[in-house]
Write a structure and sequence with these properties.
Elements: H1 2-16, H2 18-29, H3 33-55, H4 58-74, H5 85-107, H6 112-121, H7 124-144, H8 149-159, H9 164-171, H10 175-190, H11 197-203
Helix pairs in contact: 1-7, 3-4, 3-5, 3-7, 4-5, 5-6, 8-10, 9-10
Length: 206
């Protein structure tokens, strides 16, 4: 049931940005470098997160995502057939990540059994859940940037792993003020990214 709900939410997210994606695809098709750079900046962190959850190798995940974007640019004139550029990127990243595991299976005998097991355990719904999580994280980070400056600073430091006391010291405010800004951020983010609420609580935990 949970997986079906995630699928519906992910599809809703895709539908909500259909028109803006059509414009983006048109700009990419015409070779708009600024549009490509903007897409890269927006999607790179989420795609790296997705890939890393499949290959469990941060460096490899970054290489995989870079290859996905390179291929996107090379084949941009064929994007008119693509309905959702973001969905396309998630699928391409997922496929390249699984191919990476297959190559490891062939080339590195010492890790063959572990990676074969990992590859077999990656069901379609597992991958889709990872896609949903990656998209939710991307939307969360996007929403954080719309918060008031004092909220944004607190949230960003919290996501980087700093405790309430450490944030208070860095910003020169009291721990209670930090907690207040966290509570304020959660309240403001509720109206901005409903699908990511569980992630909001996770990121803002002490």
């Amino acid at each position: 049931m949970k997986s079906r709900h995630s699928i519906k939410v992910y599809q809703a997210l895709q539908n909500s940005v259909l028109h803006s994606e059509e414009d983006l695809i048109l700009r990419l098709n015409e070779g708009d470098v600024a549009a490509f750079d903007g897409l890269f900046m927006e999607m790179y962190p989420a795609l790296c997160l997705l890939s890393n959850r499949i290959v469990f190798d941060d460096a490899a995940a970054k290489d995989i995502v870079s290859e996905v974007f390179l291929q996107l640019w090379k084949t941009r004139t064929f994007l008119s057939e693509v309905k959702s550029i973001k969905a396309y990127l998630y699928v391409a990243t997922r496929n390249r990540s699984l191919n990476h595991l297959k190559k490891l299976k062939r080339n590195e005998k010492k890790v063959q059994e572990a990676y074969v097991k990992q590859l077999e355990e990656k069901s379609y719904e597992d991958i889709l859940q990872n896609v949903f999580n990656a998209e939710a994280v991307r939307l969360l980070h996007e929403a954080i940037l719309t918060l008031p400056p004092e909220c944004t600073k607190v949230v960003q430091l919290n996501i980087e792993g700093f405790s309430t006391n450490e944030i208070a010291q860095q910003l020169g405010i009291s721990p209670s003020a930090v907690s207040h800004q966290k509570a304020r951020a959660i309240k403001l983010l509720r109206g901005k990214i409903v699908p990511g609420m569980a992630l909001i609580s996770l990121f803002l935990a002490d």
